[in-house]
Design brief:
With 202 residues, the protein is mainly alpha-helical. The chain is 53% helix and 5% strand. The protein is built from 8 helices and 4 strands, in the order αααββαααββαα. It has helices at 10-16, 22-44, 50-56, 76-86, 97-108, 117-129, 146-161, 178-196, and strands spanning 60-61, 67-68, 133-135, 142-144. The strands form 2 sheets. The chain has a two-stranded antiparallel sheet. α4 packs across α5, α4 packs across α7 (146-161) and α5 packs across α6 (117-129). 20% of the residues are buried.
Length: 202
């Protein structure tokens, strides 16, 4: 026989649901809404400053001296990183190495064992030193910077719009039409010359 419980006082029902947790849930909701609005605001003008985009095409120096490789547009690993980052831009508490790694491996068309945790750590450091992500103090979690969001949206959106032959994958870079390929090669040559040219004395 089915038994039904009658609640005479609405407050009794609210108490059974943990009324004391409402302030905590309200704070979480506000944090999520604020993050969502922030992402929508950035996405509405998802073009990073030209100088920031140009810097991503060149290696940069870490505070300890070693050179950090570039995040060049069209590079399969860079595209996989930015594609994975787009899936975390809405998270209020950020993401960890183990959260991002399976997505990057999948976008590269590789199994997880061939894209190690060490490789993910290297890529997270590369993203951080290029200003794409920042690490939350005293945690192993990362969040996207505003410029990082813009760069991730630009890389993934623009890359999808480029014509590619059928069957091309991130692991096998596409061959662009001749004029576009020539322009990209020229851009790469100019950026390399700029990086290797002598720096003016301060």
């Amino acid at each position: 026989m089915r038994t039904e419980t009658t609640i005479n006082n609405p407050l009794d029902f609210q108490r059974t649901k943990g009324l004391d947790t409402l302030p905590h849930l309200r704070a979480i909701g506000r944090q999520i809404n604020a993050k969502l609005l922030d992402v929508e605001r950035v996405a509405d003008g998802a073009i990073p400053a030209p100088s920031f985009f140009e810097r991503l095409q060149l290696p940069t120096l870490s505070p300890t001296g070693p050179r950090i490789s570039a995040l060049r547009f069209g590079d399969p690993r860079a595209q996989a990183l930015f594609g994975a980052l787009c899936q975390f831009s809405h998270l209020p508490n950020g993401f960890r190495n183990r959260d991002l790694r399976p997505l990057v491996a999948a976008l590269l068309g590789r199994d997880l064992a061939s894209y190690s945790a060490g490789a993910m750590t290297y890529d997270l450091r590369r993203l951080r030193l290029h200003g794409i992500i920042r690490r939350a103090p005293r945690t192993l979690r990362y969040t996207l910077t505003p410029n990082g969001m813009r760069a991730a949206f630009l890389y993934t959106t623009l890359y999808r719009r480029l014509p590619r032959p059928h069957g091309s994958t991130p692991a096998s870079p596409p061959q662009f039409p001749s004029p576009l390929d020539a322009a990209l090669r020229h851009l790469d040559t100019v950026l390399q010359d700029l990086w290797n040219s002598p720096k003016p004395a301060a």
